[in-house]
Amino acid sequence: MIRGTVLYIEDNPANVRLVERLLEQRPGVRLISADRGQLGLALAREHRPNLILLDLHLPDMGGSAVLRAIHQDPLLRQTPVIVLSGDTDPDLPTRMLAGGAQAYLLKPFDSRRFFTAIDLSLSTGGAPAPPT
Which residues of 11-131 form beta strands (DSSP E)? Predict the structure, then answer.
């Protein structure tokens, strides 16, 4: 059984509810969420999640800044990050992966790819997910 804590940094409640519903299919996975980047970083330090899901458009700071902060923090730098974004900039996935994201899933995302990335991250402790 896949187990672990996932932190979702996302300001859109509908997206959080969707991920909550999807993760109900993984009963060993606990989801916590933050609607702002700074809060997400604080919760990540407090809860030390096994995986962080990250939206790029947050009200207080950009997702790329959150990603940088995660990788600069000694407590968090080994935590895998999967970007979930609706941004269709064709260069963005490459930039996010180069910046340390493990995977980039475009919203609306395919649930099969979502579960593949989640399961791989949680079962291997952060081995890179297959490209999307």
Answer: 29-34, 51-54, 81-85, 103-106
| Those residues with Cβ within 8 angstroms of residue 26's Cβ, 6 or more apart along the chain or in another chain | 2, 115, 118, 119
Q: How confident is the prediction along the chain (132 residues), in pLDDT tens digits per residue? A: 789 999 999 999 999 999 999 999 999 999 999 999 999 999 999 999 999 999 999 999 999 999 999 999 999 999 999 999 998 899 999 999 999 999 999 988 889 999 999 999 998 754 444 434
Question: How open is the CA angle 10-130-53, to the nearest 5 degrees?
Answer: 15
- Cβ neighbors of 49 (< 8 A, separation 6 or more) are 4, 5, 6, 7, 32, 43, 79
Task: Give me the sign of the Cα torsion angle 94, 100, 106, 107.
Answer: negative
The structure's pTM equals 0.92
Task: Return phi, psi of residue 53, to 5°.
Answer: -100, 135
Collapsing DSSP states into helix, strand and coil, what is residue 126? coil
